[in-house]
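To close the section, here is one more complete example, presented without commentary so you can practise reading it yourself. The ligand is FE2/S2 (inorganic) cluster.
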Amino acid sequence: MAEFEPVLLANIDRDDSHTLRGYESQGGYNGLKKTLKKCSPDDIVNLVKSSNLRGRGGAGFPTGLKWSFLNKKDHPIYFCLNADESEPGTFNNRILMEEDPHQVLEGIILSCYATGATTTYFYLRYEYPHAWNRVQQAVDECYEAGYLGKNILGSDFSLDIFLHRGAAAYICGEETGLIESLEGKRAWPRIKPPFPAVEGVFRKPTVVNNVETVACVKQIVDRGADWFKSMGVPADPSNPRDAGSYGPKLYCVSGHIEKPGCYEAPLGLTVQELIDEFGGGVWKGRKAKAAIPGGISMGILSADEFDCPLDFSGPGKYDCLGLGTAAVVVMDETVSMVDVLHNCCQFFAHESCGQCTPCREGTSWALKMMQRISAGKGRLMDLDLILEIGDSIGIIPGTTICGLADGAAWPMKNAIRKFRDEFENYIKETNPDGCHETVPVPALNLQASH
Amino acid sequence: MNTADFKVLTGEMVEQIEALLPRYPNKQAVTLPAVHIVNAALRHVPLQAVVEIAEILELAPAEVQDTLTFYGFFKQDQPHGRTRAWICRSISCHLRGGDELLDHLCQESRIRPGETTEDGSVTIEYAECLGACEHAPCILAGDELHKSVTKEDADRLLASWK
Ligand SMILES: Cc1cc2nc3c(=O)[nH]c(=O)nc-3n(C[C@H](O)[C@H](O)[C@H](O)COP(=O)(O)O)c2cc1C
Ligand code: SF4
Ligand code: FES
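Output:
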């Protein structure tokens, strides 16, 4: 740990870190210059492949492999930068865009060179006006300096980057929701396959990558694949499907923590280490009760599970959905899990795009039941009804088009299964004799055909 | 379609919208940017604006309306207040008093989330995670992010928006 030097956040404390001059003073765009002179696009694809970089946007798909799926015969190829960052608890993309936008742009330019993309749509969520201004300024500087536009730095590679503003909808972060939104339609995710690499925006081959992913691409080009693989958690040899968790990661920690913030460390840091060594401990000297491991979609860890390593396969071993965005939200001992689950259900009921019935109805009924429980009118059987929803909505059970529903399901399953006593006690205390008085909610048979 | 005698899109808005067309291979992709341009100027996007945007983009007004209404973001009947304040209610802010902050602002301004004060100065909205959780509880008002907002801060903000 001691010898680890942050690279993604290395420059953010400098006053001029957001300007081209500041970026170049730290060696910025040297990697691009070298690449355009000495490397072929395939060299970069192979470099990224050999680094084992996995996407930082939530799904953890190997980046080089995704790039190699592109249908290169079909032109043009588009690149979409996913800067819709809306997973509750997550803010690392915002910091990169606000404080070091050129690092992100150099990553995009390198990624487009590798994939043959000639246009980038930079899809930025509405709620980030400061990031918008910083990125737009940086793009303007790039055009002026010849890093963007026709024949970049005298090469035969040309690229445009256009910013495109979202409108406060979480589903626009799902890559095909983003594509539909960009096309001027409702952000209804598409059924996959075809994946965007084959048929994406405007029906053309498309790469969608996260902000932090392209920043990693830039670092890999500068420092090499071996540097990237020198940190993190190696692939589990007994699991052929594990691609390992290499490289630095931007961890967010917020909630009941002394020093909320975004910290860079190698993949594989445990929740406890993040809280103690970076976050300054649980706030007010209290004990922790639970934490969200990677945005609320990933579910909930109880305090005795804080040895969970935050790498791509760690949270899964603790019944969570995955690493997600590595955004940890800490909850102290005074927190009511009933409240927490109510809050999570409220988010997903609000953000479901409404396209799939199990997700639309499941998230809104779960919220209604949580409202009833919170209001002291809950019934014990409601807990099993919520679990029934949690077990039946999502891509994993095969009932929905996108992963929002899986994300909605995980807090339900983890909260009730890991803290069942607390839920039962709350219901018994707040509704001691009225358990059967409320109008029963009919069981939702979500998988039944109609 | 019933076209009104007067246009709501100014020449400047039309120019801004048309300037974006070369960025995309088809006109429909300019729907959301066009709606944003109108909303930034008029603080809402009335139906007549939808008709005019559709005309520029060679779409049916219903197509623009369909996209616009998908995002709960755009008001159509009345402009939002001169300041539109988004109070975060997601988990990190919730854990640090976001809900109480939202209640407080609603009470002090005597409106519910989504509504605008009678004098047209402020619209209060709840937001899902503003991506600034290290500063919870937070408020985005216009282009400005207010961090770790207390009730006293909220009172001062409300006064400054009047
Ligand atoms: C509901 C939902 C929301 C998502 N939101 C985001 C997001 O805000 N940002 C992001 O990069 N990826 C998000 N993703 C993941 C994207 O679909 C996609 O996997 C990612 O952008 C790919 O980039 P990467 O490989 O560089 O991670 C979301 C996925 C789902 C299912
Ligand atoms: S799972 Fe939910 S959010 Fe995803 S497409 Fe279906 S309804 Fe929309
Ligand atoms: S939860 Fe409020 S800003 Fe993220």
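Once you have examined the tokens, check your reading against these statements. The longest helix of chain A spans residues 357-377. Residues 442-450 of chain A have pLDDT under 50 and may be disordered.
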